[in-house]
Write a structure and sequence with these properties.
Jelly Rolls, seven-stranded antiparallel beta sheet, Immunoglobulin-like, Lipoprotein, 3 domains, 8 helices, DUF1214, globular, disordered N terminus, alpha+beta
């Protein structure tokens, strides 16, 4: 009897798989015809008739289809899931509220682990907005003395909405009105209106600071403290939307689902709160049939292919080459902030460089290798010679990190970076620059400002990040590019 029941069950699964495959083929017949039409005239490389193809066994075809399409669906949706995870950390890890400002008032030190590769060049301000009920008004105070600042706004699908920065408003002193997709009404006079295609918007603001100069830190902090946020109803009579579909989604995900199909939990509700638009909407239609809980009901054959696709797609994200290489350095590609059709690039970006800015504002150049293509480690001394400092519209810096932890390396001098605002930075007579990394300071005291302390621990691999703010065309085209660090 047990064998009979087993046979019946397997028969039902086989019949279901056949029916499912028939549905898939029917749904994709138009696409198949389009592919054949597009590849006509390619000789032997083109398949002109379905009869030319020996079909897969039904079960194998269904599982392969689920793997191929499911992998693309995973990469496409991962960027959205990762944005929700960032929103979740904003609320639950940092204790902030939606529609509030999280301000990092002090330059980070080696005792802090607030985020990966902490930035000492700027004071950061972060927020997640929910615009479903009414607009939010961000007030940016006047920014004097030519100090660099930028406020970048990113929608739920990690598309950059706008940058309000020194390049556009040199003196600061703006009001920014963040408006959701369905809102209509009056705004404060003179406010910069930013229309978001989604009700969820992330903010990353940066205000330049010289961390070695206490007086400058105090000035930057005063600007940071003056940045204010309020709902539109705090300044104007406005009808607040009732029973609005919320934008916030942080409670809808499992933060431990990264390598599983669990990233699709509450998929329908996630899309309802911040519907995809443009190319993402088209992608959602394509993947409707394969995402668990979105289209067809899950079945054992499809789930096997999907689970494997999720694991392999996560490996692709972890090994994705996000940067172009030259002389051992890697530079974030200019298009990295707007990955457009590349779902893999967007997935990798949100995993390792979420809320990265546009190329007009900044690019990063990184290395872990010396001129002999060997890993740079503690216990060694290195020198970098720059024929000229980076040609920038704004400023530049070089910061040292522990490769394994992506954090600053503790040292007795509490010094972690050098930049064009480092006090006493020494240039050569011809305008060139010598920079040093070593456990002990240079013998020539004149070069101490040009030195970043490392560690005597040879097991620690070093990671050097050169941040370029306001890169010129020389940098973006790699006409200017740093040489390698040389082991001394």
């Amino acid at each position: 009897m047990k064998r009979i029941l087993t046979g019946v069950v397997m028969g039902v699964i086989l019949i279901a798989a056949c029916a499912l495959t028939a549905v898939i083929v029917a749904k994709n017949r138009t696409l198949s015809v389009g592919i054949r039409a597009a590849t006509s005239g390619m000789g032997d490389a083109s398949v002109s008739d379905l009869g030319d193809v020996e079909p897969y066994p039904v079960i194998e075809f269904a599982e392969k289809h689920a793997y191929d399409l499911g992998g693309q669906a995973y990469l496409w949706f991962y960027g959205r899931w990762r944005m929700i995870l960032e929103e979740r950390d904003f609320v639950l890890k940092n204790g902030a509220e939606i529609n509030s400002l999280l301000k990092y008032r002090d330059p980070p030190t080696s005792d802090d682990e607030i985020y990966v590769t902490p930035n000492l060049d700027v004071l950061n301000i972060v927020s997640f907005f929910d615009l479903s009920e009414q607009p939010q008004i961000l007030t940016i105070p006047p920014v004097e003395d030519g100090r660099y600042y930028t406020f970048m706004f990113v929608d739920a699908w990690h598309n950059i909405i706008a940058n309000v920065s020194r390049q556009h408003y040199p003196q600061g002193g703006q009001q920014v009105a963040l408006v959701g997709p369905d809102w209509q009404g009056e705004l404060p006079e003179g406010a910069i209106r930013l229309d978001s295609p989604t009700n969820t918007v992330a903010l990353l603001g940066r205000i330049r600071v010289s961390p070695e100069i206490p007086e400058d830190v105090a000035k930057a902090q005063s600007i940071l403290d003056a940045v204010q946020l309020a709902p539109l109803s705090a300044t104007m009579d406005v009808q607040v939307a009732e029973n609005a579909v919320p934008g916030q989604s942080y409670e809808l995900i499992d933060p431990n689902a990264r390598q599983t199909l669990g990233i699709f939990d509450n998929y329908r509700e996630i899309l309802r709160r911040n519907p995809p638009y443009g190319k993402d909407a088209y992608a959602a239609d394509i993947f409707e049939e394969i995402i668990p809980g979105a289209g067809l009901a899950p079945n054992p054959v499809f789930m096997a292919g999907l689970k494997e696709a999720a694991q392999d797609s996560q490996r692709m994200i972890r090994t994705s080459p996000m940067a172009s290489r030259l002389r051992g350095w890697s530079m974030t590609p200019p298009e990295v902030s707007t990955p457009d059709w590349s779902w893999l690039l967007r997935a990798a970006l949100t995993e390792y460089g979420i809320l990265v800015n546009v190329k007009e504002e900044s690019v990063y150049i990184t290395t872990t290798l010396d001129s002999d293509r060997k890993s740079m480690t503690g216990g060694e001394s290195y020198e970098l010679r720059l024929a000229s400092p980076p040609p920038v519209k704004e400023f530049w810096s070089v910061t040292l990190y522990d490769m394994a932890t992506a954090q600053l390396i503790a040292n007795d001098w509490d010094k972690f970076r050098i930049g064009d605002n480092t006090p006493g930075l020494k240039y050569e007579a011809d305008g060139s620059l010598r920079l040093f990394i070593s456990p002990e300071p240079p013998e020539d005291a004149d070069y101490v400002p040009n030195w970043i302390p490392s560690t005597k621990d040879k097991d620690i691999q070093l990671n050097i990040v050169m941040r370029i703010y306001g890169p010129t065309d020389e940098i973006l085209s790699k006409e200017w590019f740093p040489e390698n660090w040389k082991r001394q």
